[in-house]
Amino acid sequence: IVQSLIGATANIWSSAAYWNKLLFYQASGSTMQSFSISNATISTSPIGTAAAAVGAYNGGPVVSANGTSNGIVWVLNNSSGGSQGILYACNATNIAQQLYNSGQLARDNLGNGIKMTTPTVANGKVYVGAQMALSIFGYTSFIATPTISPNGALYTNSVIVTLADATPGAAIYYTLDGTAPSTNSLL
Fold this sequence. Notes:
The protein is mainly beta. The chain has no helices and 14 strands.
């Protein structure tokens, strides 16, 4: 053993993550902590603590970054399994700064968490497994939902139907026979 830090964190059931001379530990039922490394020695007390605590059945943290800049530490709160998991993203240089959590938007529902699950980072995306689900997170822009006016009813005479979208440059393709539209459909 080169170095031992007994009592520095609560019980840990997963590996630490490393990035840019920092170690990130996610203790069971606690908040994530970061430790610095200098001259091949780990700091004896944490230099940072995340704002949110996670459940006792969490996995380990992972880091996404652009080399030595723009580091993000990702960790899951899987509670005890069987309830909705939450993915947290923290600034790697200051883990007290939470950048995002999947509980903020209904569209980002992970599904029921699985004990000891750790997110996977690959090709600029974060992959999270849940019970019978896989969620993929990444930077993207969302287009507005198209609107249809009038929004359905029974008509005895002709009616003008308008399709619109608030996203600049968006194209709307449609069909009149109930099949799914494609780029070969009417524009």
